[in-house]
Write a structure and sequence with these properties.
Elements lengths: L7 E4 L5 H11 L2 E4 L5 H7 L5 E4 L7 H6 L5 E4 L9 H6 L3 E4 L5 H17 L1 H9 L17 E5 L3 H11 L4 E5 L5 H5 L4 E2 L2 H4 L5 E4 L13 H6 L4 E5 L8 H10 L2 E6 L18 E3 L8 H19 L22 H17 L5 E8 L7 H13 L11 H7 L2 E8 L6 E6 L2 E8 L2 E7 L2 E8 L3 E6 L4 H11 L3 E6 L3 E6 L13 E4 L1
Helix pairs in contact: 1-12, 5-7, 13-14, 14-15
Length: 509
């Protein structure tokens, strides 16, 4: 079955009702809502589903992914996917998608709320009042006007934070290793190298994913370079700020306060930070608004419906090459790529080394990435592993095959060429049907439909013997194509004994 053949979906965390409703009404998908499943319950049930939708509570481990023999998709209704074993999912050919925009506004607003709360010690003052006190002098604050906030990570959330804090006439600077400085300048953020960020900031907020490169991004060394009394905010992922270093900075006075919505361990058993008087601690509320939950649930459901309907693939974190692959226009080309890869592997069973995918024609200008994946799937068809467009390239490398692409523009024919092991195949579409045009220098008089069961010879087909063999096997001749060097017959069903036909190859596409 294809990656878009998703019939049953399990929702294992609490989501807005709109999520299941969209899947059922727009996608025709059977949905089971079972929030709060234990790990063992999930393991026993996941094998019956094609898709799994989670928030942050469900841990989608390698064990879960392996048990989900039907799984084609894991959808995370939110931004981060650190509760999903993405590497294992990719190996198993499972798409992992998130909703990168769903909770951006809610997370940004919470960050801004923590900045304001830290500047005026609002939660501490409210707690003091609740205790019957009137400590006006104790809670002397500071204005945000004219202060500098450093934003580490300038994607969707970082950008929204910057725009909002500029309304307080704060100076917004930042760092992002991916987004160009000219882009962030358009929304008022001047970028600096990290080593130049620390000393300028009165406030620092982090909005990066948790990666090896970002773990402990704000540490003892960073705090030592900061202004005395700098305040830090983390509404991204626990661990980006080194918690032990933060505690030391708070105790020494180098850090004047922290707003933490996330922790390395959640809920945190170590309470030193949570109970520190200069820390505002929250139980991971970044996406906890009705609007964000509705938006994330609706977005993940709509993304899955678009995939099922072959309209688009949006939000995939482990299949970037496939973003343009899911549409009515591209689907026949993927079928052609898989068929030609399969044919090349049949002609050269022990193929290894380089395979070249060459596209021509303007409409295939940006098709190289997903056509490489499609050809790879064809090359590896018959492999015992679950091979598809998600993991094909991964398995190709392990078998010694390297598939690369090139494109020739111009007004010539729209074609796909696949070359390897000294054999060149040329194909195209005829009324959206995948067809073979050439094998090497052998050009067929009319396109060969790449569908069903084919028998291929070098030279002419032994027509009389073919008729006899097909009759005995209960199969029928559906088409016969000849070229100056090869012949191809299309038959209604495979034939078990081809010995009477001499040297030939049978392939089912």
């Amino acid at each position: 079955m294809s990656l878009s053949d998703i019939r049953r979906v399990l929702i294992s965390d609490s989501l807005a009702p709109a999520c299941a409703q969209i899947l059922r009404t727009q996608g025709g998908i059977e949905v089971t809502e079972s929030p709060g499943l234990t790990h063992q319950q999930l393991l026993s049930q996941i094998q019956d589903y094609d898709g799994l939708i989670v928030r942050s509570a469900t841990k989608v481990t390698a064990e879960v992914l392996t048990a989900g023999s039907r799984l084609k998709l894991v959808g995370r209704a939110g931004t981060g996917v650190d509760n999903v074993d993405v590497e294992c999912a990719t190996k198993n050919g499972i798409i992992v998608m998130n909703t990168p925009t769903g909770n951006s506004i809610s997370a940004a607003e919470l960050t801004c709320g923590l900045v304001l709360s830290l500047s005026r010690q609002i939660p501490q003052a409210a707690e003091s009042m609740r205790a019957g006190k009137w400590d006006r002098k104790k809670f002397m604050g500071s204005e945000l006007y004219g202060k500098t906030i450093g934003i580490l990570g300038l994607g969707r959330i970082g950008k929204e934070v910057a725009i909002r804090m500029q309304s307080f006439q704060m100076r917004t600077i930042g760092y992002d290793p991916i987004i160009p400085a000219e882009v962030t300048a358009q929304f008022g953020v001047q970028q600096f190298p990290l080593e130049e960020i620390w000393e300028q900031c009165d406030y620092i907020t982090v909005h990066t994913p948790l990666l090896p490169s970002t773990t402990g991004l704000i540490n003892d060394a960073a705090f030592s370079k900061c202004k005395q009394g700098v305040k830090v905010i983390n509404c991204a992922r626990g661990g980006i700020i080194d918690e032990a270093a933060l505690l030391r900075a708070l105790q020494s006075g180098q850090c004047g306060g922290a707003g933490l919505d996330v922790f390395i361990e959640e809920p945190p058993r170590e309470r030193a930070l949570v109970e520190h008087p200069l820390v505002i601690s929250l139980p991971h509320l970044g996406a906890s608004t009705e609007e964000a939950q509705n938006r994330c649930g609706e977005e993940i459901a709509q993304q899955i419906v678009d995939l099922v309907k072959d309209r688009a693939l949006v939000g995939a974190v482990n299949a970037p090459a496939l973003f343009k692959a899911f549409s009515p226009e591209t689907k026949p080309w993927i079928q052609l790529g898989e068929a030609m890869g399969n044919l090349l592997q049949t002609l050269l069973p022990s193929i290894n080394g380089n395979v070249q995918v060459t596209t021509s024609g303007e409409i295939l200008k940006d098709a190289g990435s997903f056509l490489c994946s499609a050809v790879t799937v064809g090359l590896l068809r018959g492999n015992k592993e679950k091979i598809n467009l998600v993991n094909g390239s991964l398995f190709a490398k392990s078998t010694g095959i390297q598939v690369s692409s090139q494109h020739f523009s111009g007004a010539g024919e729209i074609r796909l060429e696949v070359s390897g092991g000294g054999i060149q195949l040329v194909g195209s579409l005829s009324d959206s049907i995948p067809c073979l045009l050439k094998i090497g220098t052998s050009e067929f008089r009319s396109p060969v439909t790449l569908h069903g069961t084919l028998i291929l010879w070098e030279g002419s087909a032994p027509l009389l013997k073919l008729t006899e063999v097909l009759s005995e096997a209960g199969s029928q001749l559906e088409m016969l194509h000849v070229s100056n060097g090869h012949s191809v017959a299309g038959i209604s069903s495979p034939v078990s004994d081809l010995s009477l036909l001499g040297p030939c190859i049978q392939i089912t596409l």
